[in-house]
Design brief:
The protein has 313 residues and is an alpha+beta fold. The chain contains three helices and eleven strands. The longest helix has 51 residues, at 34-84.
């Protein structure tokens, strides 16, 4: 007669049998379980999201870097052309000499920034001699033009030689380098330093990165900076307030009204005469030094009476 297994042992055997069938008995079956597929899909999603974010940030950085470098190189080219005195063939007879193959030297080189419908275009012109010298007009020759990405914006700051800011239209302004000294000027505002802030915005028009190009009115060399030079100069000109030492505050003591009582009168001590001391001791005789003899005046005395002589008998 067989002995029946207890109830707990039968449940244990069932669990072991199910585990064995799932692991060892299904070796020849191909495919993935639903849990495994969900895990793989989640991992792929995480990697894809990180890759998309990184690639978008990298693309934005490339767009920003190329745009501000284009602006900086355009300004540097205008300055270099004015220094070298580069001439070009006057194919349009800008100098009105009825010759179309002679060389012409511009008065200077102009860089114009113009913003329309949120898109900024930077253009390089040769400033010719008509109709107006030193200003951008219709007869100036366009040499190069760069259109910035619609995510790139421009702000302009300035400082006159007197220290006050100039009034500039950020949507349309121009700078010029005159030949051959490459003297820098903000057209319409001479002797003014200029700072161009180039920044990039995201889809919500929030600034995400920026660079600054600063040009001093004395030199005009374009300097690419991470921070605003004019703002740093303004902060440096404001003296910092240095707090003095803080002394502890003590509580006020009680106030005693009126003068205090008069103290006792002390008796005057009588003066007691001291003993009389004898005078100085014996004197030691000194010696007499002979002084110089000064002869006095000779005073003649009176002449006495004449006594007659007696003859001897």
């Amino acid at each position: 007669m067989q002995k029946e297994n207890p109830k707990g042992s039968s449940w244990l055997c069932l669990v072991v049998k199910i585990w064995y069938n799932h692991t060892m008995g299904n070796k020849n079956k191909k495919g993935f379980t639903l849990v495994e597929m969900l895990i793989v899909i989640a991992i792929i999603g995480i990697i894809a999201a990180a890759t998309i974010t990184t690639s978008r940030t990298f693309r934005e950085q490339v767009v920003f870097s190329s745009n501000y470098q284009n602006v900086e190189s355009l300004i540097a080219e205008a300055r270099n052309r004015s220094l070298t005195g580069e001439s070009f063939i006057d194919t349009n007879d800008f100098d009105n000499d009825d010759s179309f193959d002679d060389l012409i030297l511009p008065n200077g080189y102009i860089v114009n920034f113009k913003t329309e419908d949120g898109v900024t275009t930077a253009s390089l012109y040769a400033d010719l001699f008509q109709p107006v010298i030193g200003e951008l007009d219709v007869d100036d020759m366009l040499l190069k033009s760069v259109e910035l990405d619609d995510s790139i914006k421009i702000e302009v700051s300035s400082e006159r030689k007197t220290g006050n800011p100039a009034v500039i239209n950020s949507d349309d302004f121009s700078i010029i380098y005159t030949t051959p000294s490459a003297e820098f000027d903000l057209i319409g505002e001479p002797d003014t330093s200029l700072e161009i802030k180039i920044y990039q915005v995201d889809g919500e028009d929030d600034e995400i990165r920026s660079m600054h190009i600063f040009m001093h009115y004395l030199f005009g060399i374009p300097e690419v900076l991470n921070d605003s030079y004019l703002e740093l100069e303004e902060e440096a000109s404001i003296p910092a307030s240095i707090p003095g030492p803080v002394f502890p505050t003590f509580p006020t003591g009680p106030i005693i009204p009126g003068p205090g009582p008069t103290g006792p009168t002390l008796p005057i001590t009588p003066t007691i005469p001291g003993p009389t001391l004898p005078g100085p001791g014996p004197q030691t005789p000194g010696f007499t030094l002979p002084g110089p003899t000064t002869p006095g005046p000779t005073i003649p005395g009176p002449i006495g009476p004449t006594i007659p002589a007696f003859s001897t008998i």
